[in-house]
Amino acid sequence: MLDQVLKSYLEHICGKTNVRENVHLKTCTTFKIGGPARFFVKATTKTMLVKLISALNFIEYPYRVIGAGSNLLASDKGYDGVIIRLDFKEIIENQNFIYADAGASFTSIVKKAEEWELGGLEWAYGIPGTIGGAIFGNAGAFGSCISDVVPIVDVLLNGEIVSMDTVACKFKYRESLFQRNRKYTILGAYFALERRDGDKIRALQQQYITKRTQTQPSGPSAGSVFRNPPGNSAGAIIDKLGFRDTQIGGAVVSPKHANFIINEGGATAKDVTRLINKIKKRVKDAYGISLKTEIETI
């Protein structure tokens, strides 16, 4: 009974076309893994999101906010709650600043920065996912990370929109406050960039995308599985232990990069988890290093 009442209210807030039931999360993640979510809702505006989250918090109904699902491993059992996908995507330029909504793709802001001849995001060319997801995990590559260029993040907290500076966001290597405190919902961010010749921007982008293509695999995955330990490379450590091509069910360690697990077809979350745990144990036994995952789980 509650579910039907909730469905009606979700449709009232978000519109019938933005509310679906029993959507398999394997269709919403780049890993192509995951069972059905009780409800799947697209939030197309910030006003809609505020109303939606306020209602769910009031009745204490479980929910998770996602972007493009590029860094997620969803349970085979699915999620008995509301999955909210952020679908507001505005990107605005003002002199050396860009403001991007959380639902905008990382690729789109990189392309806009190139178009507006603003440098500082070349390293991010080719990184999948959304701005919200990138801030949530402090995404980075080639020695740079998103917290280097984001001075202000807008969040939803207790029904109010609040602006937080970099210090308040508690950014660390592949970490942020938002991973530890789910009361915050990222709405958007300001990027402080610098004027740079368009040809130089494109040249740098090409260098990064060439390196990424040469070293990282294609195929369904959630990107890098493990964070790099201080002063070391997770991929190199795993590679030394001979894990490339190691397979459990449909999940296999990439032969191209040992810090990637690929869904070769029909992989389950259980397959991936078993493979992750096997790698963790071997690394701990061999080197005394406790690997931490980058991937978020639902």
List the helices and strands and how they pair.
Elements: H1 2-14, E1 19-24, E2 36-43, H2 46-58, E3 63-66, E4 72-73, E5 79-86, E6 91-94, E7 97-101, H3 106-115, E8 118-119, H4 131-136, E9 140-141, E10 144-145, E11 152-157, E12 160-165, H5 166-169, H6 177-180, E13 185-192, E14 194-195, H7 198-215, H8 234-240, E15 247-248, E16 251-253, E17 261-263, H9 269-287, E18 296-297
Parallel strand pairs: 2-5, 3-5, 4-18
Antiparallel strand pairs: 1-2, 6-7, 7-13, 8-14, 9-10, 11-12, 11-13, 15-16, 16-17
Can you describe what's shown?
By secondary structure, the protein is an alpha+beta fold. 32% of the residues lie in helices and 25% in strands. The chain has nine helices and 18 strands. The protein has helices spanning 2-14, 46-58, 106-115, 131-136, 166-169, 177-180, 198-215, 234-240, 269-287, and strands at 19-24, 36-43, 63-66, 72-73, 79-86, 91-94, 97-101, 118-119, 140-141, 144-145, 152-157, 160-165, 185-192, 194-195, 247-248, 251-253, 261-263, 296-297. The longest helix has 19 residues, at 269-287. It is globular and about 55 Å long. The mean pLDDT is 93.
What keywords describe this structure?
alpha+beta; single chain; 5-stranded antiparallel sheet; 9 helices; 18 strands; 4-stranded mixed sheet; 298 residues
Percent of residues in helical segments?
25-40%
Q: How many angstroms does the end-to-end distance come to?
A: 25 Å
Please provide the ordered H/E string of secondary-structure elements.
Answer: HEEHEEEEEHEHEEEEHHEEHHEEEHE
Number of strands: 18
- What is the global morphology? globular
CA radius of gyration: 20 Å
Which regions are unreliable across 5 or more consecutive residues at pLDDT < 50? none
**How is the biggest beta sheet arranged?**
5 strands, antiparallel
Query: In percent, how much strand structure appears in the residues?
Result: 25-35%
Structural class by SSE content: alpha+beta
What average pLDDT do the residues reach?
93
Tally of individual helices: 9
Q: What would you call the quaternary organization?
A: single chain
Looking across the biggest beta sheet, what order are the strands in?
A: 6-7-13-11-12
